[in-house]
Structures are given as structure tokens and as C-alpha cells.
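Re: the multi-chain job from yesterday

Posting the exact lines I submitted so nobody has to dig through the queue logs.
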Amino acid sequence: MKLQVAMDVLTTEDALALAGKVAPHVDIIELGTPLIKAEGLRAITAIKKAHPDKIVFADLKTMDAGELEADIAFSAGADLVTVLGTAGDSTIVGAVTAATKHGKGIVVDLIGVADKVTRAREVIALGAEFVEMHAGLDEQAEEGFTFQTLLDDGETAAVSFSVAGGVNVSTIAAVQRAGATVAVAGGAIYGADDPAAAAAELRAAIV
Amino acid sequence: MKLQVAMDVLTTEDALALAGKVAPHVDIIELGTPLIKAEGLRAITAIKKAHPDKIVFADLKTMDAGELEADIAFSAGADLVTVLGTAGDSTIVGAVTAATKHGKGIVVDLIGVADKVTRAREVIALGAEFVEMHAGLDEQAEEGFTFQTLLDDGETAAVSFSVAGGVNVSTIAAVQRAGATVAVAGGAIYGADDPAAAAAELRAAIV
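And the result, C-alpha cells for all chains:
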């Protein structure tokens, strides 16, 4: 199982500083959606240039113009780009077309999708590399949210999936047991007093 | 009925050039999602600075972290910011909180929402300024797309709405008859040989 750090910071400078600390312990470096909207594609380019050996994940959360948005992100240096599961199939197909052209991959973020299992299978059939079983920052704060549902959905869908939203040192073993391809940690790393130590601890918890 | 130009260009330079041509003929200047992802918040600031008397619309298409994303866009100069109708209620409420703080407004983009009428009423109740009856660029290219459905949904919902995706000189009268608050024209303006003349012609078609 790979470890992905989600960088929910707002400036390229903060992203570079965080990535510099945690890169040795992670496989995938994610630029969060607010960071990309705040800084633009130059943030992607800066992170890829600083960490050419890492998989750079641009969380574009594309809802429309799938081919165009994915194309400009891949051209800027992204290796993986997200499209929303609530987007139409033609948007996902467009993004996959761009990924194929660049020899890169599309990840479908299932945030907000009611039936994540069915949609997961549909988008893999459309050419997505993997799906993200994801509870958003807002969703995690809602009453009734359970992390276990994400794991159960991933296991049931039986396609390649990552898990995001609630991954920390006490849950990461369960994520691996559920069969996830990637565990995504955000606040558990960037919210820690020592992000490098937090990332190293998560890495050590993967068996 | 107000006229909004959707600038689906990819650089701040092109956006400033287009806005400079069409501003005299429109009420609302929209920065498209790919433009914001490409250039970041600085694109919003540049347009607001060049056109302080116009309503600047940032098509963020927020799916998560509603308060944060809206807050940074309003701080950068946006007057209206979009959240996706497929986002959870807590994301919409968060964005409305940011809008209230700044004395600005949230628009909910109903792209990808199956039952647009019901969702329109729900998000207006949550505090959205108006909803966007919207067929995306990808959706418009799909078989079976009909512009009339957008107008019918707006009329049936009986809340304040804009229409986007297929507005041009031959359809804008129907948009007004359906009771729209705002007509959004994208390709009909930026794809024209003479964008200023195209915007003027659309304006003249509003009675």
C-alpha cells in the first residue's frame, strides 16, 4: 500500500516546505484543491520540479471540461489528476483521453456520490486508474460520518481504491486490511507538530 | 435580466483582453473554472481591479471546504462564487457563511444534479443567492441534450436562477421568457470573431 500526503495548504511556499519535510516518507504528494485554486498550475510545476522522483497528484476535482483540465495539469507536471465521481461520464472519458495522451492517470474522487460501489465500478470501466473513497473535510464534520463505511465500500467494489478522510496512525492498519492501494493522510501529517515524524510513523504502520 | 460573460480562456492576459472588449455590454464577468485552476486567485484580483464596477463571478465549482474556498475567492475580489449542487449541504452552508462575512453571494451550479428543481429549492433555503441551471461543456456535446429542459427546470423551481450552456442570440429571448435572473453566454461571445459585437447583440436581444 502506498502512502499519499494531501497538502491542504494555500501557498506554493508552504507546499514546498511541507513536501520537503515529508517526501522521504511518502510515495505520492498531493496538491489539494484549494491550493491549486489559490496558486494555479505553477504550484504543480514547482512541486514536480522539487520532487521529480515522487508521484505528483493534482486534486483538480474536475466537474466539466475533463479533457482540457486534465491536459493542462499533466502538462504542468502532474502524474495523477482527479475528476469528480458526480461528473458526467463524458467528462471522465475526456480526462482519461488526456491521461492516455500523456501516459499518466486519472483518479475519480467519489466524494458526494451516494452509491460509491456502483460508481467505482463504472468509472474504472471508463478507464480511471483508481477511485478515491473519500469523505470531504465538511463531510467528516457531519453527524453520522463513519470511516468504516469508506473501507467497506472499497472492499465491496473490488476495484483499485484509495482511502481519504480520517486516515491516521490508529486507522491506517484497517485501511490496509480493507485492501486499499493508497492511504491518503492530510491533517494527520500537516496538522502534526512534526510532519516528518508523523509521516514516518504512518509509513512504519504499513506492513 | 442581467447578462453574464463566461470567460473560458486559460490565461489572465487573455481574460483581461476579453473582458476589456465586452465589459461595456455585460453586467457580470465570469472567470471560468479552468482559468482559475490555471492562474489561481490572482486572475480574480486582476479582473476586479480592471473592472471594479462589474460583478466579478468566480466559477470555483467548490465540492468541499466550502467556507475556505469561498473565503479566499471573496478576499481576492470576487463578488459571486459558485459551489456545486452535488456538494453536501454542509459545504454549501460553509460557503454561505463566508459570503455573509464578506457581504457577497454564493451561486449554486446545478451541473450534474439529476433533480435540479428539488435541489434548487433546497440550496436557496440554505442561503444561496441564485442557482445556475447549467449544462456543462461536456454535457452539451452529449446526445439527447436539450436546452429547453434547463429553462423548464428554472421556471418550475420558481427561485432566482441563471441559465448557462447554450445561450446565444437565437435562444436568449426564451431564457428571458422563462424568467431567468441572469443569462450566461460563453462560446457565443468568446468564440465570436468580434466578441464586443456579439455581447452587444446579446444585450440588445434582452427586452
